[in-house]
Amino acid sequence: MPDTTPKLFQPLKLQGLTLPNRIVVSPMCMYSAHNGLANDFHLVHLGQFALAAPGLIFTEAAAVSPEGRISPEDLGLWADEQIIPLGRITDFIHAQGGRVGIQLAHAGRKASTYAPWRGKGAVAHEYGGWGVIGPDTQAFAPVFHTPNAMTADDIGRVTQDFVAAAQRAEIAGFDVVEIHAAHGYLLHQFMSPLSNSRTDDYGGSFENRTRFLMDVVRAVRGGWPMHKPLFVRVSATDWAGSGWDLEQTVRLAGLLEREGVDVLDVSSGGLTTEQQITPAPGYQVPFATAVKDAVRDLDVMAVGMIESPQQAEDILQKGQADLIALGRPFLGDPHWAWHAAQQLGVTPDVAAQYQRGNRLD
């Protein structure tokens, strides 16, 4: 007999990990760490999601080196002392039967900036800011730091920073690692011709502009257990002329598939202040669909203004994506997965302590 369970609540096997449903808590920066260390805020913030049983919970972006933080308050995984605080979080989520991933990132030229509610632009050195790096010396915007162009040694060092962070993530108990190559951060900066004017092996052609990301993917895949899934987040388009676009994203997806990436997390934008975006419900889903149509063994995650359970279910039913990532909906309703189950006629899988709140019957 066919499975009549809504697709949103059907399991998905990724290597040795089985997600109980297709709902993913997307990485969301909280700007609440000190020296990169997770604290009680992160434990409560991420732990609350586990009580309503989404398929996978991601931490916010964790910087692989101090220079790679977006803000001074970013989470980090560049040092061994950052492992144990993150381990408290993975232990709690696992105790609730959940699965948890961490997004590894380097902000490049968009580093050393204020948390959104503290101001805009570059943090001055006297207030805890630092020098930033990028593919070349183009600043993201006039109010941002001017980066130093990375040398070959810098590229090799940051590649190893990603590997070391992934190895710490394994010790901390994470089930999934995601490499952040979207939203105008360092790896995306190398990919886009709008932010990469290099003339060496890391600039110019598509192969050269994607070389840094491919270096990182190969190195991380080699240092991350093969039975654990590896995700990569990309911006499918810069939303700007002559920039990174969907055609290049589809081409990149084929390369990542061959390198053992399990899921491509398809977002968009963030590379340039010249981007022209008209947001609408599900406006990024067609990008995920284009990738899904072009690959065979690579699962695809859609994200961006997916608000309602029925909207998420329709995306999956139409074969437009394999996973649904949600950010703001979970900020507004930490029990979104629970309420989605109720709306789609599924018995919610929630913590026993919360089951008195189940009014499905």
From TrEMBL:
GO terms for molecular function: FMN binding; NADP binding; NADPH dehydrogenase activity. It comes from Deinococcus radiopugnans ATCC 19172. The keyword Nuclease does not apply. SUPFAM superfamilies: FMN-linked oxidoreductases. Keywords: Flavoprotein, FMN, NADP, Oxidoreductase. InterPro entries: Aldolase_TIM, OxRdtase_FMN_N, YqjM-like. Residues 7-344 form the NADH:flavin oxidoreductase/NADH oxidase N-terminal domain. It holds the Pfam family Oxidored_FMN. Its cofactor is FMN. This is 2,4-dienoyl-CoA reductase-like NADH-dependent reductase (Old Yellow Enzyme family).
